Amino acid sequence: HAASMTNLDAVHLISRRQHGLVLVEDLYALDLDREAVRHLIRSGRLERVTRRVLRVPGAPVTPRQQVLVGVLDASPNAFAGGTTAASVWGVTGHRLAPVHVACGDGGSSRRSRNAIVHRIAGLSVEHVTVLDGIPIVRPEVVVLQLCGSEGRQRAASALDSLWRRRLTSGPSLRRTLGQLAGSGRNGV
Nearest Cα to 113, choosing from 130, 99, 127, 128? Predict the structure, then answer.
């Protein structure tokens, strides 16, 4: 069962927005069935990265693509978080790998070999965005996550960097703290 040209065009459109990657579920949403997806892989039009994530052959393998593999593999409702998000936001001293992913309420409960998954109760649409094609937590959430995992000094340094570049502010930090603070949240 070869995919129609319209479907292949849609697959390539999705992959261009996602660093050369597509989710198997995205293909099913395009009305491709399992056999059509298998055909795309066997014919070399797509290659398997994980059970759920496929790559267009020839798409460059980059560190940011690897972040997106971790996010997509842990989806739905998964976002680059913690030190990975700090690095994507341009905070020096933080690395993309290992990939840290934040999942909100209703997010996937699956484990990922490609990411360290952190659950954040109360994480909502206002706490996340997309940066360079990567679903990611907003800078205010990054600061709160770093407070719980990286220590006061590194969190303060990240806050200074994000503040200087006007990616966060006092009101936005207070609002996010009020929304996400609660018993049992390290660092908050």
Answer: 99
List strands edge to edge, sheet with 53-55: 21-23, 53-55, 47-48
Strand order across the beta sheet in which 116-119 lies: 116-119, 100-103, 78-80, 134-137, 128-131
Helix (H) and strand (E) counts in the chain: 8, 8
Neighbouring C-beta atoms of residue 162, cutoff 10 Å: 22
Q: Residue 2 — φ and ψ, nearest 5°?
A: -80, 140
Report residue 11: phi and psi, to 5°: -60, -45
Instruction: Please give the average per-residue pLDDT across 43-56, as a whole number.
Output: 95
Q: What is the pTM of this model?
A: 0.86
